[in-house]
Structure formats: structure tokens, C-alpha cells
Amino acid sequence: MPRAASHFPPPPLTGPLVLWLLPQLLMLGACAAGFLFSRAQPQPADRLALHLVISAQVIVLFLLFPMLLESGRSAAVIFAGASPFWVAAMILSGLGWSTMLSAAGYVLLWLIALHLVKLNLKTPAAQLHACTITSTWLGVGPLLWYLRTESGFSAGLSVWSPLTAALALLNDPAQIAPFMIPLAVGLLAGLVFLIRRRAIVN
Fold first, then answer.
1. 168, 159 in Cβ contact below 8 A?
2. Lowest CB count within 10 Å: 90, 113, 131, 157, which one?
């Protein structure tokens, strides 16, 4: 008798979705409640809503993307979950649609790129190594921000860090350079996936 094809149900989305939405909800709630993160922050606090929501999304996405983007279905759910927070944060912060759409488009482009990267990570070890790389890359952002603030150094390097690039788009949504890096990563990851898939088929 032929063996029945093994079928593994997709992993539940509840855990990843909670990890994705909770930080955004906390940031949005803190801004709406007027929570002071720093004495030097702009007043009222809700002016930072979009900055904090976008920051939370970038940080969680880069730290946990293998779990969040397990499949195309989970990637779509993650995107759908982020959309209301973009709109709510835009309204709270008083920023325009063009600013919100620019920053949200940047996050979406990274979501697609990291999903394509995830398709090439076949083992837990590979996923762990990838998370180490993205976490380190993410950590470069605050360092670049500090150097830029203190000495003016690295003023043109903020686009290389996902976090500082996302925040820079909120100040100047007409920028194009920040989008080039996730676009290049996505194209490269997609090309590698297609080559590997073709090699398996042949």
C-alpha cells in the first residue's frame, strides 16, 4: 500500500501575533495617556505616537522575523495587524498621510524582504544565525544616532540602519535611499530561493 502523505498543520499564529501587536499597543497606549519617556521629549506626548509605533515594529520584526514570518499566511496576518496601528498613530501624532505611508511602506518592504530571507532558512541553526545578524544590524542604529548627534559623524549613514532609516522617513518622507537596502535584500533572497528551488526540481 502506498504511504499516506504526511501533512503538518501550520503553526498557530496566536503567539507570534501577540508578540507583534503587544509592543505596538503599549507604545500607542502610552502616547495616548501622555506618558513621559523623557523630560526632553516633545509635548504633548502623542506627537511621538507614529515614531514609537514604527520603532516597535522594526525592532520586533528584526528580532523575531523567523517566528513572525513562518509562512506567507503569517506574513499577511502580521501586515494586517500592523495597518490599524499606522492609522491610529498617524491620527494621534498629527502627521500627514504621506509621512505615514512612507514609513509604513518601509516597514512593509522589510517585512517582504525578511519573509524571503526566511524561505531560505531551512534549519533552526540557520534561523538563529540570521537573527543574530539582524539583531546586531539593528543595534547599529542607536550607535549611528549617537555619533550623528554628538559629533556630526555618520550623517549620511543613517539609511544603513533599519531603525534610524525608518525614523528618518518620518522627518523627510520624500527620501528614496532608505528603500534601496530592503529592496536589495529582498531581491537577493528571492533570487537565492528561486535558484535553490530550481536545483531541487532538476
1. yes
2. 157
